[in-house]
Amino acid sequence: MNFLETFNQFYNSAVKHLEIPDGLSAQIQSCDSVYHLRFPITLDNGQIEVIEAWHGEHSHHMSPLKGGIRFSSVVNEDEVRALASLMTFKCALVNVPFGGGKGGIKIDSKNYSLDELEKITRRYTYELHSRNSLGPNTYVPATDYGTTSREMSWIYSTFKTLSNSNIDSAAAVTSKNITQGGVKGRKEATGRGVFIGLRELLSDKKEMAKIGLKAGLKNKKVVVQGFGNVGYHAALFLNKAGAKIIGICEYDGSIYNSKGLDPDKVKSHLKSGNSIVEFKDCESFDDPYHVFYEECDILVPAALEEVINESNMYKLKAKIIAEGANGPITFEADQYLSKNNVVILPDLYLNSGGVIVSYFEWLKNLNHVRWGRIENNGNSEMKEVDLINNALNETMCQAFDEIKAKRNDANSQISYREAAYKIGIEKIANTYIEMGIFP
Ligand code: NAD
């Protein structure tokens, strides 16, 4: 089973009871196009290496397309198709007017120097630009696994050069550094969104009683897998709201402390280049999955896909699984866990904070003015981040209410995932029907 098959299974089970013509459903489900690219770069030692990469465009029912670019040694075409597909439904669910896209470059960034990473990023940008597949009105990438605002700023400056200093160049990519037109709050946005979704879920006394939990985040025991952009920020906001981060899993080991770990201390330890297992004041294990199976209230997978599957679904002891990562649970594992009363907050809702704030960044770049500058007579430096965080909160709460309403329509018999997919599919179908794509 790969991630694309998993996506198709989730899609098929959600669309089954919707009244959408088969042909339209096939169009909504399928990925419009994928480029498989190969390009050479010269390494620092003078040798030439051919880099393999993909660019996926899932749906053009809205423009531009939006979706991150990942650097990963295991990325492949099906994964890019699945990730691009998920983006389409995510954007529809949270009312962000984009189609879904995705990029993947098959490298492990740890094996390349800064200069080499810059060459790879700029060359990939050139490849997309030369195919008319990058720009404020075509495809607007952002950060994803293995990339940061640094790579996005390289993409921006390359695009700007290639497009003759197009006045809207900054809107060709989001999650940029602030000096390049990025917005305050984007770096934290996905993790903040994970926190907002969990806060909303846990405030529902009735739902929590069903799984034997008290309402509220206070003292909830949390395990996080992947302490990168999404995992760290999710842990930070959950911790601030009173939850205890009892476990963290990284690629080279896992750590546990029943009294709680300080997310900032762990982050600065990792930033200095140390292994997670060298962190003090906790139990540590060479097995990255040791802590993953610990008893906890909330498990946040925030690394890669399919980490919860048929081989390990029996071992999980979490009551709630919060999908920070895209596609961390396979279809079979999802069915099994749901039957066993585990509440799953799905990726297409829970990690949408990134694309929501990217939408605000794109709007800011097209408007050529900082949020709040005009409304507030230009005298508040803090205004932009407050506006953005409030709008993110509002958007995610509204989407959560829509998901809840959909579940209630179905007598709460359907999962949060099925409800989220159904909402996304219906909105996309309506767009197609109203556009008259199928005369
Ligand atoms: P990241 O590169 O910042 O962090 C990923 C972390 O996972 C790294 O610290 C890495 O060492 C760790 N990791 C790798 N393999 C692991 C393993 N086997 N076990 C435990 N940890 C492991 O990436 P990110 O941006 O935080 O993205 C993580 C996930 O969230 C991806 O699925 C991505 O698609 C999704 N996502 C990211 C964003 C975003 O805005 N960055 C938005 C939506 C979804």
Architecture overview:
This protein has 439 residues and is α/β, with parallel strands linked by helices. It folds into two domains: 3-7 and 30-180, Leucine Dehydrogenase, chain A, domain 1 (Rossmann fold), CATH 3.40.50.10860; 183-439, Rossmann fold. It is 43% helix and 15% strand. It has helices at residues 3-15, 22-29, 77-93, 114-130, 149-162, 186-202, 205-210, 229-240, 263-271, 331-339, 347-350, 353-367, 383-409, 416-435; strands at 33-42, 48-57, 65-66, 69-71, 99-105, 139-140, 221-225, 244-250, 253-256, 283-285, 296-301, 318-322, 343-345. The chain has a seven-stranded mixed β-sheet, sandwiched between helices. Strand 1 (33-42) and strand 2 form a beta hairpin. Helix 4 crosses helix 5. The longest helix has 27 residues, at 383-409. It starts with a helix and ends with a helix. The relative contact order is 0.13. The model has no long low-confidence stretch (mean pLDDT 95). The structure holds nicotinamide-adenine-dinucleotide. The site of nicotinamide-adenine-dinucleotide has 25 residues, from helix 8 and strand 8.
